[in-house]
Amino acid sequence: MTGLRERRERTLGPYAPLFYDRPLELVGGDGVWLTDVAGGRYLDAYNNVPHVGHAHPRVVEAIARQAATLNLHTRYLNDRVVDYAERLLATFDAPLDRVVFTNSGSESNDLALRIAAQHTSSEGVLVSDFSYHGHTRALAAATTGLRTREGLGPHVRTLRVPDLDGADRGHDEATVLAVALDEARAAIDSLRQEGHGLSALLFDSLFSTEGLNRVPAGYVAGLAALVRGAGGLVVGDEVQSGFGRTGTAFWGYQNHGVVPDLVTMGKPMGNGHPVGGVALSAALLDEFGPRNMYFNTFGGNPVSAAAGLAVLDVLRDEDLVERARATGVVVRRGLERLVAAHERLGPVKGTGLFFGVEILDRPRNDPRARPDPASTRRVVEALRARHVLVSRIGREDSVLKMRPPMPFGPREAELLLDELAEILDARPFGRCPLRSGA
Ligand code: PMP
Predict the structure, then answer these.
(1) Residues sharing a CB contact under 8 Å with residue 117, sequence separation 6 or more, in sequence order
(2) Which has the closest alpha carbon to 142: 48, 226, 209?
(3) Residues of the chain with CATH 3.90.1150.10
(4) Which atom of ligand 1 is nearest to the CA of 131?
(5) Residue ranges, CATH 3.40.640.10, the chain
């Protein structure tokens, strides 16, 4: 154990998670590269918080300049804050024309649930059965992807999110859709019968924690129609999928042809500076505002607004959403080549700059094939040893997770793919080698 790790455990306790068997001590970042304390360089194929790249000079300068001018709480008029609200709202679809700023994704989702409860006079919440939406008490009671003391609240019902590239592979898409929507109907009925009513559906439009599920066409729209039919609101959690991550749209919900009633934001919004927000319609805010004093000391302060504005500027000026789409095509093609060569890899999942590939314990065509988290873990560690950073997601932690900063380009994509290919070729994982026929 290094001295720093010991000191960390003695102060932060042993429960604050760290990546890797040999945790990294990083001291610098630029673009899609990170530098460790020994001067080693790492290709970052994991981090989405530094959305427009580590230490992007325009974001750094905007933060520094505003911090050197004025930063304080949010109860004074400030043109930068209003400029940011206007610029951000211009990216949304009607009727989302108001934004409430917060400091994190958790705060945003917590507030969205409060607004939904106010609107519906109900508490019932629908979430997926393997999801993460934040760390407040209300969200801990609605979180299914992590262990919490609260456990699921009596007002929460969970839905199994279908996956045409996972558990539902090979099944008829229309049938998978019908079964999933029946399950949602039953969950809404059960909330009604037990007196909770329906307040909100809370979902991540990329189903990232779930493992980047490929849902049947019309699934999210179908869920939204059921929820609205029962008087509930639709909350789109764009903490992972927002700000162009999918390459095909600025907001993940746009890929599903649904405009949520509330959209929650966090992680990439300030490129590492803590800022979040909830976008909603004036009508909804006008219901909530007069009955609830909502004051957020730090949420959307002038420095946060400067960071957020700079992120929007860089996304536009460097055409990063299109770049994510184009690089995503390169990554997908490369991963598909790897899948063709290695029969223990599942189908390629994801879009834009968020990809997943599941590792299985047997050839994928063997009906007994199961997720193999131990092998996935070994690949993540082997990539780290080769200075490429990725992670794992999914119910079984068996899906390799690749989600780099947005400037990740074709050259970096080839680097990632080459390293991954060498690892998969070189090492026999578990009971059978990854390479078909090897
Ligand atoms: N929603 C989603 C989909 C997330 O992935 C996360 C964080 N991983 C959150 C909400 C919570 O955001 P924060 O950690 O900023 O509170």
Answers:
(1) 123, 199, 200
(2) 209
(3) 2-52+319-426
(4) 3
(5) 57-317
Count of CA atoms in the C-beta half-sphere (13 A) of 226: 19
CA of 354 to the centre of ligand 1 (A): 16
At 288, which amino acid appears?
A: F
pLDDT in tens, 224-241: 999 999 999 999 999 999
DSSP at 93: P
Q: How far apart are the first and last CA of the chain?
A: 38
pTM: 0.96
What is the tens place of the pLDDT at every residue in 386-429? 999 999 999 999 999 999 999 999 999 999 999 999 999 985 55
Give the whole-angstrom CA distance, residue 112 versus residue 288. 10
Does the Cβ of 216 fall within 6 Å of ligand 1? no
CATH of span 2-52+319-426: 3.90.1150.10
Mean pLDDT of the chain: 95
| Residue percentage of the chain with pLDDT more than 90 | 92
204 lines ligand 1 (CB under 6 A): yes
Report the topology of domain 57-317. Aspartate Aminotransferase; domain 2 (3.40.640)
Give the residue, out of 103, 206, 238, 239, with the most ligand 1 atoms within 8 A of its beta carbon, to mutate for a pocket test: 239
In this prediction, residue 220 has a pLDDT band, given cuts at 50, 70 and 90, of very high
Helix (H, G, I), strand (E, B) or coil at 19: coil
Residue of 358, 348, 434, 346 lying closest to 392 (CA atoms): 358
Residues 47-57: what's their mean pLDDT?
A: 98
